[in-house]
Amino acid sequence: MEGCRWTTAGTLLLASLFLSSRTARSEEDRDSLWDAWGSWSECSRTCGGGASYSLRRCLSSRTCEGRNIRYRTCSNVDCPPEAGDFRAQQCSAHNDVKYQGQFYEWLPVSNDADNPCSLKCQARGTALIVELAPKVLDGTRCYTESLDMCISGLCQIVGCDRQLGSTVKEDNCGVCNGDGSTCRLVRGQYKSQLSANKLDDTVVAIPYGSRQVRLVLKGPDHLYLETKTLQGVKSENSLSSTGSFLVDNSSIDFQKFPDKEVLRIPGPLTADFTIKIRYAGAADSSVQFIFYQPIIHRWRETDFFPCSASCGGGYQLTSAECFDLRSNRVVADQYCHYYPENIKPKPKLQECNLDPCPASDGYKQIMPYDLYHPLPRWESTPWTACSSSCGGGIQSRSISCVEEDIQGHISPVEEWKCMYTPKMPVVQPCNIFDCPKWLAQEWSPCTVTCGQGLRYRVVLCIDHRGMHTGGCSPKTKPHIKEECIVPTPCYKPKEKLPVEAKLPWYKQAQELEEGAVVSEEPSFIPEAWSTCSVTCGVGSQVRLVKCQVLLSFSQSVADLPIDECEGPKPVSQRACYSGPCSGEATEYTPEETELLYGSLQEFDELYDWEYEGFTECSESCGGGVQEAVVTCLNKQTRETADETLCVTSRRPPQLLKACSLDPCPPRWEIGKWSTCSLTCGVGLQTRDVFCSHLLSRETNETVILADDLCYKPKPSLVQACNRFDCPPSWYPTEWQECSVSCGEGTQSRNALCRKMLKTGGSAIINSSLCPPLPFSSLIRPCALAICARHNRPAHKQSPHIMAVKKVYIQTRKQKKLHFIVGGYAYLLPKTSVILRCPTRRFRKSMITWEKDDKRLVSSAHITIAPYGYMKIHRLKPSDTGTYTCTAGPAREHFVIKLIGSNKKIIAGQPPPSITEEEAMRKASLNEALRTQEKRINGILFNGSKAEKRGHVSDLSSWYDDIVSRVLQHRGWPGENLETWEPQESTERNTSSEEDQSREYSLPFTMVTEQKRLDDIIRNLSQQPEELKDVYTEQLVQLAHEVFKSHLEHQESVLKASRRGVDSTSVEYPLHRHVSGLTSSLRTSSEAFLPTSVDQANGLRRPRQKPAILRKISAAQQLSASEVVTHLGQTVVLASGTLSVLLHCEAVGNPKPTISWAKNGEEVKYNDRMLLQPDDSLQILAPVEADVGFYACNASNALGSDSVSIAVTLAGKPLIKASRATVINTESPAVTVDIGSTVKTIQKANVTISCQVAGVPEAEVTWFKNKVKLSSTHHVHDGLLLIANVSLSDQGLYSCKAANLRGEVTESSQLLVLEPPRPLPYLEDLTAVLSSAGTNTRSVLTSPSGTKMTVSPGSSVLIGCAVDGHPIPNITWFYSGEPLSLQHRLLAVGRILQILNISDAPDGEFSCLAQNEAGSLTQKTSLAIQEYRWSVDKLMACSASCGHKGVQLPQLRCLLDGAEVNVSYCKEKPKPALQPVACNRRDCPSRWMVTSWSPCSRSCGGGIQMRRVTCQRLTAKGSSVPMSNEACAQVSKRPVDTQNCNRKPCVEWTTSSWSQCNRPCIGPRLAVQHRQVFCQTKDGISVSSDQCSALPRPLSTQNCWTDVCGVHWRVSLWSVCTATCGNYGFQSRRVDCLHVRTNKPVLEHHCSWRPRPANWQRCNITPCENVECRDTTRYCEKVKQLKLCQLTQFKSRCCGTCGKA
């Protein structure tokens, strides 16, 4: 209502001021009799708010309406603290003026209600108050707590904006004319929880800047303060007395009453205040608090960003940043998002730089937008569904920057264009309200007034709005029933105990527990219980249980069959009790008694349970729990006893309390590592690390903070991963410059074989360890600007195709044949054809191919390669035709025809251009011949392109006729070839690569020059037509002769090669053949040689070992891409090398067998590594992996020979290396190639060979373990001699070959072998023995054998002590056989443990030590020794005299004659033991005594006596009395009397009982006390320990008193403060009343029962916007005051104001 009054008054005053000012202004406008206003006067004050005035004069002789003076406030800045009060300054000015003849020190009198603007002062130390001036100075405050000021003796209203007449007020946050959005209301309640080990607790922490703080404590405890300033200065105030005082410059008002304390702080607080409570009494206290907490993180608008354009009109925008008001700095946006009251201001847009751009400056805009082009903006998709239905989930959306053109079309653009405004969040929290959780109400009173009973409570499932709902986990539900103990013994009989009202509590708790809410899942919904079936006694209740479901779309409830619901069905019947029936004795069965009251027993046991302190807090901060420790105590001695002595059923319930409520300090939150950036070498992983603060442990709500707020060092964000070496790989260098300065050339680069190391670096390693690298990856074409023409004219030569004009006839099936364009081929089907087009002055990759004038492209059947060749796979009839190779303007053809199985040409599809001529040829051969003559003479070599293409077609028909007749001619060689098998050498090469660059010899193929056939055709065409048939026959015969002469020429070549003539010197009439291909000629020509040629001459030659011919000629390079060489040479591969042919010719008888090896390993032939028919080795498309030493091995029955050839890359040195492992255990000397692993015995001589090839010649350097060897070592011609090898010579020996082109290194490992030898000791055995225990025996084996005796069933360790290099492998045997009995191997097999030696009754254990240098056997034998009993010694005599002395034989357990523990013999039968009499003689005289008599007194000192006599025992056992003198000579006489029970006599005594008044523990039931102490009979007090043996009287007991006849009385609940929403509450009065007088008494008298709640929330339901209704009860008042038009009342009083 206070707020309403302010609003009303403020509104009316503001309205009146507004009306009056408007009236005055209109009057002034109407009347101009006044002069203008003068300037403002000086301010009446320099600070604290003063007044200034302005005057005007009346220009008329008449009286002017209105005032001639006006005022305004000024100097509205706070005065410094030392300035003092303005009114006090005016009073002190009269200190020097006598008043009634006397000087006084005047003090101000403020807040005078009658005349606040008069200067009233009081004389210090007196009651004298005098008005020293009728008016205070202008600007003096009317009242101390107000801004209103006195002007001309009148109090004028001043608003918080420091303006006269203003009614503007500060809001609750201290903001002038604010809307209350800069702070939030915090209210709550604290209840103390007493603890034995806790003296105080924190109530609430109130932060800096909070206002209107009010706390009320009710109860016996006391409040006190702790403060901490922003500078970190801490202080404490005990609040010991009532008063007003300053704490850290904050004004505090504290009131202390007997039963409560009130603390008020108007604020704003100048420090962080922590309100604490100090426990002072047994009763609980409660503290209610309320204050306004400032929102310290606020949005702040930034300045405008730079203009988007430099001229011609642009725009600029503002943004918003989150500002921390306490630290005065900008922080992350999420701090401001945390407060829902914070609304981020929208960006502002304004025009800028509107001046036109100068004509010379074409640059206008920084961003391409103008005033007519809408700004790009962020657009978002709808939010996804929330990931969680409660408790905080997340939902996401996608954000994109879009732009709208003038037509309104929207299109996405780059994100930077939208960066003038912050990007909308893509993720947001959702459903952040708490999940439903169990809320336990207060416990009911115990069901009994004494002893043990039960208590109940209501447990509800409450959602975040405070409504009773479903959805809580049954597993976490608190219990609704627990045992309770009333610490009052039950002295009265059970049947007379007062009956406590247990059943209503039980009923309420059970009903609320079973209450269920209909949900969208089928669930059991029980209805209310019926009334009890009886009006007194025990009856029954029933209820209906339904299976129901909520239909979400209609929000209606539907009934389902019972079996649709899962889980147990709630009970539908239960017992009920309606109280005792009148006139009946209240008697119950035991079951009813247990149900209604619980088990009631007399509390007269000695031991009982009690709480003793609490456990440590479960959390160090942020709120944890402590559990009370329950112990079993002796009620009389108060000592802890064993828990079994206390009754388990009476153990008190678990008691928990909250602890460590202080918020947790900020801590680092660490995310998961990302995947590694690299798979090997050294990669990196990253992770997110941010500083977070836990706000609530229940909701797990956290906020992100700046990193400097976390005190601990920040965990690392990056770590290394996958730290292991990478496999070797090629790393290419940069491309070199183009090989030409203009035109088309090539570029090359190198590649290094590197290994990325786990250290982060890399190492260059041997290239053989990297995978094969094609040369094509190291070279590429490059094209520069066209070359400039020189002054003198130069004719650029056009491209040229090097065609071969031949005709080929295939006579035998072959898998593959090679041809060069320019000829005709008649081939057999299913033959694969490789057709090359060699060119000059033209790039091969630009060559194109056509078939019958149609462009060819690669397919599964035809392959077009970029190297100037094409391949046809397995010819078929459709492949016949004319194939054309085009290289720029140059063209060449190749015609392919197929030969059928009947030796006739298969008709293909003739090209369209020859169909007409073909028909003419069939009509008249002579006409065709004449036409052909003209074509040949006129066009053959100088016709046009079209004519030449026609020539190809026409000439083909002539060749078809000739070839057809030649094939049918008798004696054709092909007839004898039908049964031939293909040569092995040709089969090997079936998968050769096609990119060969030479014309191959063609086995089983007849070849002749086209020119010779053309001559025949030209001659015959000139003959008369009448002789056509004769000359046609001659034509065929001539053609046959041509082919036959070709065969004879091949035969002469073969004979020349057999005579040893170097094949390279043979000149051929057609073209030069390569010597490496002569075997192909041999294969084909020998097939056609006459049978008279003797091929068996070799059988009659003398037998001869193989010898390989060495040829010292340089490698022959047929072209840039083909290399042919003999053994003994070095081949240097260039980047363009496509083929390398290695010749190997060997002589011997029998004929040697040739095999090839590379670097010591047999060559594996494949489609690149080919063995030719003449045993040459051909390498196609060589790669760097092919570099190495190739050895040709020739062998027959008499021996073998081997010669190597080096193939190296670009002149780089090459070392012949081996990868073999050589083991030498006998020979005194061994020689190996570098690269081998050498294992040798000591004192041998080792020679390592390092054969090097390289152009230019390479220099060889030797290293051992990467250290260069000195010249003193035996190094000669690439050989390293290591003489008399010892262990010190072991290591890695490296040979480095280097020349100008590069260097290469190969290494060999030298290992020195040492055969196994015995050692005298084994260190591992000692270590194993120490861990195995003392009962385990051990023995070492030896070459000659050792022996040891062991006990049966024991465990034995057998050691095999051997040494050798490498470390020998050890194998164990038992009786010469591998071990089968139970055993274990330890110390890497050096120790054998036999777990039970009884498993090996007899036999020999041996160990076989083996390594590469030899072996050694050592052995041991174990003998099992039995345990046995021995009785060979007698024990000492049992007596020195008398008749009872005996000696027993000493029973010992022996093992191998040595005594051991008797437990080893326990299973052996013990021998019979016969005692032997000893020392049977009279004893000397001695004193004999009887036992002491009982003490004569039980306390206070008594005596006890015994009898002493002198006697002698005889050998027969009789006792003879002797004189005392006889014994006195032997020993002193024992005493016969002594004192006893000298401790004083004590007893428990008690004081009288105290008054029976407090504390109350029940209705009219209190506790009274008395003192119990221990004293002597004389009344002297002594320690209680001296009475501990006596039963201790009780020190407390229950008693009846009228003082405790009290109970709680509650009034009705007040009307709820709201009809809906989250803030409604209601209260009621709770008093403690005396039953008899019905008058209030102090509340602690009722503390034995829980105090009913005096306030609660109400109407916690959402306010429906659809329905217009009132949400506050003050709406009628609002309507009366006519405030319905104000916004704050319009919505809250919608119903009432709507009626208005």
What does this structure look like?
The protein is mainly beta. Helices cover 12% and strands 35% of the residues. It has 17 helices and 118 strands. Strands 52, 54, 57, 58, 61, 62, 63 and 64 form an eight-stranded mixed β-sheet that branches. Strands 78, 80, 83, 84, 87, 88 and 92 form a seven-stranded mixed β-sheet that branches. A six-stranded antiparallel β-sheet has the order 9-18-11-16-15-14, with no helix packed on it. A hairpin with a 2-residue loop joins strand 83 (1259-1264) and strand 84 (1267-1268). Helix 6 (915-923) packs across helix 7, helix 7 (925-939) crosses helix 8 (945-968) and helix 7 (925-939) crosses helix 10. The longest helix is centred in the middle third of the chain and has 31 residues, at 1028-1058. Residues 1-30, 361-372, 492-514, 584-604, 911-950, 974-1000, 1056-1099 and 1113-1120 have low confidence and may be disordered.
